[in-house]
Amino acid sequence: MSPSPGSTGEFTYAASGVDIDAGERAVALMRTAVERTRRPEVVGGLGGFAGLFALDTTRYRRPLIASSTDGVGTKIALARQLDRHDTVGIDLVAMVVDDLVACGAEPLFLQDYVAIGKVVPERVAAIVTGIAAGCEQAGAALVGGETAEHGDLMDADEYDLAATAVGIVEADAVLGPERVRDGDVVVAMASSGFHSNGYSLVRRVVSAAGLDLAATPAGLDRPLGEVLLEPTRVYALDCLALVEQSGVDGVHAFAHITGGGLAGNTARVLPDGLEAVLDRGTWALPAAVSLLEEHGVPREESERAFNCGVGMVAVVAPEAADAAVRLLTGRGVPAWVAGTVGDGDTGARLVGTYR
Question: Where is the PurM-like C-terminal domain (predicted)?
Answer without folding.
Answer: 181-347
